[in-house]
């Protein structure tokens, strides 16, 4: 393995089927600090070239052994770690994220690559099943039938703005698709093209080390809507992974559905991640929960998809104590740099939706300057929230809304009125068990992950994690974009009836589970 320099200067090219390709036009990135660089603009023609290479690669990579694919995933992780300092440097310059955050995100990225490698080696994800032949069964014999999950083909992945490593070039969608045996074409996010480029260099090095077909991975930078549209509508693409806005994701989802051959669109689109503070918990530790909420709300300038944007608490002195503690903690929070100028402006626009709105009371209003964000806090009641759909729309940034309820019964009514969420949280003490027991079935229908006495920011990469939920949290409520179950998105079951073991796939021949 080479030992790349700790400093990285982007060359601004696309990676298409193992080659760095320049474009006819360029765009400049907008780093939080340091000089900008020029990057080639993607085109539909580049999309076509990359997709054709991915299809060609599928005939070898899709039928490679699990050992070979696991080695490739581990090699990508190795090459990313070999560029650790350079990745942190360029990532911090482009995104404004602090060093510690990027180092942690890099560890999550390499960790999930290694976890997926270990997972596919076990073979459990194949869900192999065998029904033995029953030749003497009456009135009709039964043939031998075997089943196994098989990769679907080339996958398109859209890089996310808020996670330049863990949800972008070599992030969860890419890692899951490669683990399944599917080549990947990534449309890089224009917020961090330099970070995408250096990670693509790591993947290219791993492809060369492992002798993988060069079409297994391509990165197309920049481009307008025509590039994204060309990618999701390309006939060789068989699924799409996306993390981003509701508007952009819904537009791509509709394009996938309108294709002559519709394909699954695994989109994570938005969530306000409500928290419910139950009476006994509010009685014993309202201030503690309020302070914790403020910390979670402002973590990473509120730019997490699991940011708990809404807190539900009863009216009265104990609810007031929760609100006072949260407000005090938010008032002392420093301004934080947001990922892009556009995101910073969207945060200001989101705050403006709440100012002067009927029956919405400002508790803390601040002015965010330039790319720096300061927290804001508002309060309303359950009736107002349920009647005003705009109050439930995600604000990407450190803005919180407290919804006050008259009773635990009204808390249940409010919970039923929420749209689909990534997470829902209950803060409870032992005396709240009956209330929580009544609330839990409602929240199960609303969210993919339920928490008790915690905060949802931070998603563990593990076997049991679900990062998804009913629409609009995600477009496929049966899938997750984090954890080993994410691999299943890019597989489909195939039954083999009376197929001789001599021609069965190696993973299925002799399997009796």
Please describe what this structure looks like.
The protein has 513 residues and is α/β, with parallel strands linked by helices. The chain has two domains: 14-23 and 37-135 and 143-269 and 474-497, Aldehyde Dehydrogenase, Chain A, domain 1, CATH 3.40.605; 275-452, Aldehyde Dehydrogenase, Chain A, domain 2 (3-Layer(aba) Sandwich). The protein is 38% helix and 18% strand. The chain is built from 14 helices and 21 strands. Strands 15-17-18-13-12-19-20 form a seven-stranded mixed β-sheet, sandwiched between helices. Strands 9-8-7-10-11 form a five-stranded parallel β-sheet, sandwiched between helices. Strand 1 and strand 2 form a beta hairpin. The longest helix has 24 residues, at 99-122. 53% of the residues are buried. The model has no long low-confidence stretch (mean pLDDT 95).
**What summary fits the major beta sheet?**
7 strands, mixed
Q: What is the annotated CATH architecture of the largest domain?
A: 3-Layer(aba) Sandwich
What is the level 1 CATH name of the largest domain? Alpha Beta
Report low-confidence residues grouped into runs of 5 or more.
Answer: none
Strand content: 15-25%
Give the rounded overall mean pLDDT: 95
**Number of H/I helices:** 14
Cα gyration radius (Å): 24 Å
Q: What is the CATH fold-level name of the largest domain?
A: Aldehyde Dehydrogenase, Chain A, domain 1
Q: How are the strands of the largest sheet arranged?
A: 15-17-18-13-12-19-20
Specify the overall morphology.
Answer: globular
According to DSSP, the number of beta strands is: 21
Structural class call reads: alpha/beta
